[in-house]
Amino acid sequence: MHARSPAHALDAPPQCAPSLLLRAQVLIADFFVVLAILAWLAAGAALKVGGSDALITPWLALWTPLFQPAIGLLMAGALVSGGINWLEEKQKPKQ
């Protein structure tokens, strides 16, 4: 068996089920949504210190209906992904 060069490692991406790929893409998109939520909160807090409620008021209105589910989805996805990886490692034959 010969070692593959790093250039060959990039040639063929690993094959996975389309549903797994879709779930991964959804979690990646959700991660960036959560980052945007955090940036919005930071900007709103900075403006609040300056005396303006222009950003924090709409952020607070969206906290329960939008932001909490987005954060919950990200957390649940991370836990499920970690659990699936752990189970797959347990089921692999030991070498």
Structure description:
The protein is mostly helical and about 100 residues long. The chain has one domain. Helices cover about 75% and strands about 0% of the residues. It contains three helices and no strands. The protein has helices at about 5-10, 20-50, 55-90. Helix 2 runs antiparallel to helix 3 (about 55-90). It is elongated and about 65 Å long. The mean pLDDT is about 85.
Give the topology.
Elements (H helix, E strand, L loop, with lengths): L5 H4 L8 H32 L6 H36 L4
Helix pairs in contact: 2-3
List the keywords.
single chain; 95 residues; mainly alpha; elongated
N-to-C terminal Cα separation, in Å? 16 Å
Q: Describe the biggest sheet?
A: none
Which percent band covers the strand fraction?
A: under 5%
Which class do the helix and strand fractions yield?
mainly alpha
Task: State the gist of this model.
This protein has 95 residues and is an all-alpha fold.
